[in-house]
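Entry 14: structure prediction run for ARM repeat protein. Input pasted below.
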Amino acid sequence: MKEAEPNDRKIGKLCDYASKNPLRIPKITDNLEQICYKDLRNEVFGSVKVVLCIYRKFLSSCKEQM
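Run finished. Output tokens:
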């Protein structure tokens, strides 16, 4: 299985969407958390790296909403 690499453009679009729709942030983060746990159990560490990059961007771009 090919390891996932962070796509800055897609992560940026997700962060823009989240900042414009702050009520969706809990659902987005819940989904990211589920993906992360599932991939950790299946030892797909590339996806976990992507999820961590998304969280890092969320923290920097959506501080007011979180």
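Notes: The CA atoms of residues 10 and 20 lie 15 Å apart. Will compare against the previous run tomorrow.
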